[in-house]
Design a protein that fits this description.
mainly beta; 4-stranded antiparallel β-sheet
Length: about 110
């Protein structure tokens, strides 16, 4: 949920907050195979502004995976189902097992 502290000087959600939602979905998707992966590039296009009280949700889809790399498409939507942003990202697989949790309440 977008908080007042996440707004920019125009009163809309700061792009960094939207990016964080997309980046977290990328981390979950790219590390879901149990092998550590890190982003090497992320490009995001902002489509619709949001404001305080809006709920943001992201879905990351794995488009391609090799032994060392991965390519993902991430969509961020608001609570009305409107697309807020679309991102593409590439990751590098470190070749070592993932340890720990992917985030609060998310395990491998």
């Amino acid at each position: 949920t977008v908080q007042q502290s996440m707004l920019n000087s125009l009163g809309t959600t700061h792009g960094g907050a939207v990016f964080t939602v997309a980046d977290f979905a990328l981390a979950i998707a790219s590390n879901s195979h149990g092998e550590a992966a890190v982003a090497t590039n992320v490009s995001i296009n902002f489509i619709k502004a949001t404001e305080a009280g809006d709920v943001l949700e992201a879905t990351a889809t794995e488009e391609n995976r090799t032994r060392k790399t991965g390519l993902y498409r991430i969509e961020v939507i608001n609570n009305n189902g409107d697309k807020v942003a679309i991102a593409t990202a590439s990751v590098y697989r470190l070749g070592k097992p993932l340890t720990g949790e992917l985030g609060p309440g998310v395990s491998k």
